[in-house]
């Protein structure tokens, strides 16, 4: 029974990796940019790129609260 569970998990993991690879391939070749910035509307292919971009907006907000000398 344990061996069956382990084999099932390995199969599931490999299928998940293949699915993620196909999604990545589709995004790359179609030019699709499914991730959008809620602050400025810029679009990105990868979620990580959107997260890095959003830091620009959060840093601008924190710097705008600092009084000028």
Question: Features of this protein?
Answer:
single chain; 69 residues; mainly alpha; two-stranded antiparallel sheet; elongated
Structure description:
A hairpin with a 6-residue loop joins β1 and β2. This protein is mainly alpha-helical and 69 residues long. It is found in: Nucleus.
Distance between the ends: 71 Å
Number of DSSP helical runs = 2
Q: What fraction of the residues are assigned to beta strands by DSSP?
A: 5-15%
Give Rg in angstroms.
20 Å
Shape annotation: elongated
Order of helices and strands: HEEH
Structural class by sheet pairing and helices? mainly alpha
* Spatial ordering of strands, largest sheet: 1-2
Helix content: 55-70%
Mean pLDDT: 79
Q: How would you characterize the largest beta sheet? A: 2 strands, antiparallel
Number of strands: 2
Low-confidence regions: none
Summarize the SSE layout with pairings.
Blueprint: H1 2-30, E1 35-36, E2 43-44, H2 47-64
Antiparallel strand pairs: 1-2
Q: Outline of this structure?
A:
InterPro entries: Znf_C2H2_sf, Znf_C2H2_type. The chain has 69 residues and is mostly helical. The protein has 2 helices and 2 strands; from the N terminus they run αββα.
């Amino acid at each position: 029974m344990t061996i069956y569970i382990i084999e099932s998990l390995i199969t599931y993991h490999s299928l998940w990796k293949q699915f993620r690879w196909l999604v990545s391939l589709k995004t790359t070749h179609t030019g699709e940019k499914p991730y959008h910035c809620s602050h400025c509307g810029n679009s990105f292919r990868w979620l990580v790129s959107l997260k890095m971009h959003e830091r620009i907006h959060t840093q601008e907000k924190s710097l705008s609260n600092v009084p000028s000398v």
